[in-house]
Design brief:
TIM Barrel, single chain, 3 domains, 32 strands, eight-stranded parallel beta barrel, 16 helices, Immunoglobulin-like
Length: 675
């Protein structure tokens, strides 16, 4: 009887699984999703997915005529199904076909790396298909970071063009960011989302890159191009909810409890979020691995330099209370990053002002390196947007500027504009004067806001277009007004000068990148404040910042200073070189002597324009002191270089002290300049 039954079993297997699958077995190769392999004469793709409640799983695609029965996957005994399928090469399209409770479900691959669209097919993708340039890149020191938040879908658009823009279009703007001094780009989400226009916070294909932007290799090319210009790239990841539309993860293998979403989601009230009932189930090991592997994918394969975690408050908390599984998952991911690539940064958008978010996991914290600081952005925006000077609360401004987490400036990201604030409250010029956002009032107070974020302790961030006074509200369809790079060229230069000072590119403003701050002058009646920025230690590299948040011009205003003698004016936001309508209040270098003031033994008087910022630091000792206006100790730098026969009298001074290929210190020494 057995001799007759074996063929019958084989016939049944062929009938159930497809003739080509009769003698196949689960794959022994690693990886989840669709992983191309090539070993000797063998080449194909390993397919593996997690579907613990399915009774059968198959893969259909261009390689089998989209047959829902021809290519079966085999159970591995742990809820996973897999098999190697020979001759399936990168570029082949596919979907999983799951049998569950008598239903046939066509589902996209949860770990699918490339798609033809959010509701269309997956595409087998080879991670090695992009050839990196190999140009060396080193992540900037965290205290040197100046970030620009960028939305790929609008960043590269010219006026009159329709969205979405692409990674290739965004690449054409990288030289602008480099010339500005920006050395980190914070990309809004680039994961696959429904349609082709979105902010990106409604992910459907977590492991896929938005096809309308160009797909995975286009993202790699963008990161590669940024690295070639010395610019880091941070990616936005969303683990607090997914979808909620076009979401094949929903009831992926047919199982669910009540109205909930199945194996990838909580199946109770913990699933509820402000964006849909799709909070992942952080308690399931397979879901935790899915999320943790996703985070590492961008840092390792895509060579991204950091991650910004969206709305972490909704990972660690639900409407039902705290979510210990979510808290432990965040800690686990941060530990994994720190173990593998500790120089890369993880940033939380938590917005609760909770210092435990940026405390180390060993101390019981979540382990993030930095967090967006709600205690900074809201008071500063409120002060800048207030119509009447009398409504500006300088105590609130001082608390925002002097705030932070555990005395470490890098633990907070500070800004006056992000996609959220700019969408609901308007870009800063619009928030200040909605009826006339290019008015003098808007220009003065918006640039004052930029000066604050570049001088307060923290990691400064701007929103795309902020450097040329982009107006309106942020949305995912509005092109940037790139023509304003020319029409507001002076404002662009103002931001370039601020960034240069913040990054200490000329070696005379190191205190701005330190952790130290002392707010020593606060005049709520006059709306004037001053603070000292410094680096704790033997060489504090003192910088004194003076802010006037009123429309009053002060011709002789006394400020206490932390040291006797000369103080060089490094920046005056009221200078007409930045805008011909600015007042050009004649602020100058100063001498600090008695009387004592503001708790310091010496003081000096300054001229202070309306809604303006002054930045002072000491003269450099033992080397030439180069100013933003091209003078060295009062000597015109162009004249020095011209007399020495440089090819370009307005030669560019680089970070390493080289001007048009010549060492600046040698030129100055030969010319006779004195430090």
């Amino acid at each position: 009887m057995r001799l007759h039954r074996l063929p019958l079993i084989a016939i049944l297997l062929v009938s159930l699984l497809g003739a080509s699958s009769a003698w196949a077995q689960p794959s022994t190769r690693p990886g989840i999703g669709a992983i191309p392999y090539s070993q000797g004469s063998q080449a194909g793709t390993t397919f593996r997915t997690w579907a613990p409640f399915a009774s059968a799983v198959r893969v259909a695609g261009t390689f089998n005529g989209w047959s829902q029965t021809a290519t079966a996957l085999f159970p591995e005994g742990n809820g996973f199904w897999s098999r190697d399928v020979a001759s399936v090469m990168p570029g082949a399209q596919y979907k999983f076909v799951l049998i569950a409770g008598g239903s046939t479900l066509w589902k996209g691959d949860p770990r699918g790396r490339s798609v033809t669209g959010s509701t269309s097919n997956n595409v087998v993708y080879s991670p090695g298909s992009y050839a990196w340039s190999g140009v060396p890149f080193e992540m900037p020191a965290w205290d040197d970071l100046v970030m620009m938040e960028v939305h790929v879908g609008t960043f590269g658009l010219a006026s009159g063009q329709g969205p979405p823009a692409t990674f290739a279009a965004a690449t054409t703007k990288l030289d602008h960011l480099k010339s500005l001094g920006v050395n980190a780009i914070a990309l809004m989400p680039v994961n696959e989302f429904p349609g082709s226009i979105s902010w990106g916070y409604n992910p459907t294909g977590l492991y896929a890159v938005e096809q309308s932007y160009g797909g995975p290799n286009a993202l790699k090319a963008f990161i590669d191009a940024a690295h070639q210009r010395g610019i880091a790239v941070f990616l936005d990841v969303i683990y607090n909810h997914w979808g909620p539309t076009d979401l094949d993860l929903w009831r992926f293998d047919g199982w669910a409890q009540g109205p909930w979403g199945g194996i990838f989601f909580y199946n109770d009230d913990r699933a509820v979020t402000p964006w849909g009932d799709t909070r992942p189930d952080y308690g399931r090991p397979e879901v935790r691995d899915f999320i943790s592997d996703h985070a590492m994918l961008w840092l390792e394969e895509f060579q991204a330099d950091g991650l910004r975690f969206d709305a972490t408050k909704f990972v660690r908390r639900s409407n039902q209370g705290d979510l210990p599984d979510g808290w432990s998952l965040l800690r686990e991911i941060n530990d994994r990053i720190d173990e593998a690539q500790p120089w890369k940064i993880s940033i939380a958008e938590d917005m609760d002002g909770d210092p435990w978010i940026t405390r180390g996991t060993g101390a019981g914290g979540a382990g993030f390196d930095s967090q967006w600081d709600s205690t900074f952005v809201h008071p500063i925006r409120g002060a800048l947007a207030a119509v009447n000077d009398s409504d500006r609360d300088m105590n609130a401004v001082a608390a925002a500027i002097g705030g932070g987490y555990d005395g470490d400036a890098s633990r907070r990201v500070i800004y006056t504009e992000s996609h959220d604030e700019a969408a609901t409250g308007g870009r800063m010029p619009t928030a200040i004067n909605p009826g006339n956002p290019t008015s003098w009032w808007s220009r003065k107070r918006a640039t004052l806001g930029s000066a604050i974020i570049m001088t307060a302790p923290g990691l400064p961030m701007m929103l795309q277009g902020q450097e040329f006074l982009q107006t309106g509200n942020f949305n995912d369809t509005q092109p940037l007004a790139w023509n304003q790079v020319q029409s507001f060229a002076g404002i662009v230069s103002l931001h370039r000068d601020l960034i240069s000072l913040r990054r200490n590119r000329l070696g005379r403003s190191g205190g701005l990148s330190g952790d130290g701050i002392s707010i020593h002058h606060l005049n709520n009646a006059a709306k004037v404040m001053a603070f000292r920025r410094f680096k704790p230690g033997p060489d504090p590299q003192d910088v004194v910042v003076i802010l006037n948040l009123s429309g009053t011009t002060f011709t002789s205003y006394r400020i206490g200073m932390p040291g006797t003698g000369s103080w060089r004016l490094r920046f005056n936001s009221d200078a007409q070189v930045y805008d011909p309508q600015f007042s050009n209040t004649p602020a100058t270098d100063g001498q600090a002597f008695a009387p004592p003031y503001d708790g310091y033994p010496v003081s000096m008087t300054v001229a202070l324009g309306p809604y303006s910022c002054l930045i002072y630091s000491r003269p450099r000792q033992g080397s030439a002191d180069v100013n933003l206006d091209g003078t060295v100790d009062g000597i015109d730098l162009a004249a020095i270089l011209g007399s020495w026969g440089t090819s370009d009298p307005s030669a560019d001074l680089t970070d390493d002290g080289v001007v048009s290929g010549s060492d600046l210190s040698v030129l100055l020494s030969n010319w006779g300049a004195k430090g």
